[in-house]
Amino acid sequence: MLTVETIRKVRIAYHRDGKSIRKTAKDLRLSRNTVRKVVRSDQTAFEYRRSKQPFPKLGAYINELERRLEEDQGLPKKRRRTAQVLFEQLQNQGYCGGYDSVRRYVKRWRHQQQHMAAQVFIPLTFDPAEAFQFDWSHELVQMNGMPVKAKAAHLRLCHSRMFLVIAYSRETQEMVFDAHMRAFEFFGGVCRKGIYDNLKAAVNKVLSGKERNFNSRFAQLCSHYLFEPIACTPAAGWEKGQVENQVGLVRRRFFTPRLKVRDFAELNAYLMERCIGWAKTQRHPTIPQKTVWQVYQQEKPYFIKLAPRFDGYAERPARVSPSSLVTYDRNRYSVDCNHVGKTVQMRVYADRIVIVRNGQVIGEHDRHFGRGKTIFNPWHYLAVLERKPGALRNGAPFKDWRLPEGIGRVQQRLKRRYADWDRQFVGILQAVVLYGPEAIEDACLQALKMNVISKETILNIVHRSRDRHLEVVVDLPPHLVLKQKPVADCRRYDRLLKEVHHVAQ
User: Looking at the domain assignment, is residue 485 inside a domain?
Assistant: First the structure.
């Protein structure tokens, strides 16, 4: 191979001294083809690279060699095996080739790994209200004295770098909806784009390029707030690098040392306060003369106007059990007993569960977390009590039933006075459906005041009160108004009796 010194002599002889190719080749004892190559290429150095390296003896051991190199890749540099050690280990497995083949392969493999690790990232810039980024992280907190892994939703405005962190107990679709709604209300508006990774709550299927099959409910959220969802390329976290870096910042600044809180409400109030405090003291990375809070205030006029709150539920089908219960997230919730055995839709919100059938709400409860809990609404079993009033005595839905004060006192009085108190009390409860709890409560209080406690008395009070409310005053036209009001006179009745008696004689 030509050395740099030989190439220099050829170039000087030809270009500076004006010698011919034949004369240069003769003086330097080179072939004329070699001189022509140097002169015509106008290069000062030549380097030979093999396009394909054959491994006649090492080929059968390459997979084993790469496996050992990958094992060492995660170890500290001092603990990694050298090429000599790898060569000796391969010899123990039957390799009969030379050390140089192993050394060259190890060198090339490690060079490729370094090249792959040294990725280049292009800085991104965003206009005001152009985009926000969303991501999840898992943080450890101490809640009511117990360690809890909180799922933290991060929303960050790309232009101003303002962000909000909201903690939940689950990383599910309804929590995604709730996080967006609370963040948009906190920011006071919506950006034109939202940048996500391919989270299951939003993306059903990853298609070619940037195309995604978005979940129907998530698409409704985007349509409601008028922003366009953009999903990152798989394994390309740099496309939403701001929120990726924010996860580490929040973990170091907000969750270290480990927080001690009573519940998620207290935790989220603390996180909101810390987000605002950080924004007011942190300098903006590209506008250092202003804080993040100041840039955020300048960005607010560019937001899309905030729409009314989105009905952010995730819908799940369920079947009502013979106990008039539906199951979700390992807990059971009661529904109206008239729908036993039917298929219903559960609308799962971040804080409540709504059960719907044919567009009609047949059950609504506060959402409970954990497992193995059964949440009853005793009013859901009222229709069954009409046929089985004895269930009122030991039925699980009616244990510790918090009734209005007047109705509860009537129940206790009936228990002491009547053997069939349950049947009478069920009759009173049935009237609640017809007249409303306020009317029955007033009637019970009146019966207690009169010290006359029975189903008939209370229903009679309700009916009389209802009749008084139904009295209607009709405005008659002038020609139908009596000029002389009738006077009750019993003598007219006596005269009528005499006339009747005379006719009979």
Answer: no
Same domain as 289, residue 192: yes
pLDDT in tens, the chain (505 residues): 678 899 899 999 999 999 999 999 999 999 999 999 888 888 888 877 766 777 778 888 888 898 899 888 878 888 889 999 999 999 998 999 889 888 988 988 888 887 665 566 677 889 999 999 999 999 999 999 999 999 999 999 999 999 999 999 999 999 999 999 999 999 999 999 999 988 888 888 877 777 888 889 999 999 999 999 998 877 666 778 899 899 999 999 999 999 999 999 999 999 999 999 999 999 999 999 999 999 999 999 999 999 999 999 999 999 999 999 999 999 999 999 999 999 999 999 999 999 999 999 999 999 998 889 999 999 999 889 888 888 888 899 998 888 889 999 998 999 888 888 989 899 899 888 888 889 889 989 998 988 888 888 888 888 887 766 555 566 778 777 777 777 777 787 777 777 765 544 4
Same domain, 325 and 241: no
Model pTM score: 0.69
What is the β-pairing status of strands 343-348 and 314-319? antiparallel
Q: Which amino acid is at 278?
A: W
Distances (CA, A) of 205 to 198, 323, 438: 9, 38, 52
Nearest CA to 126 out of 306, 286, 300 is that of: 286
Residue range(s) defining the domain that contains residue 30:
4-41
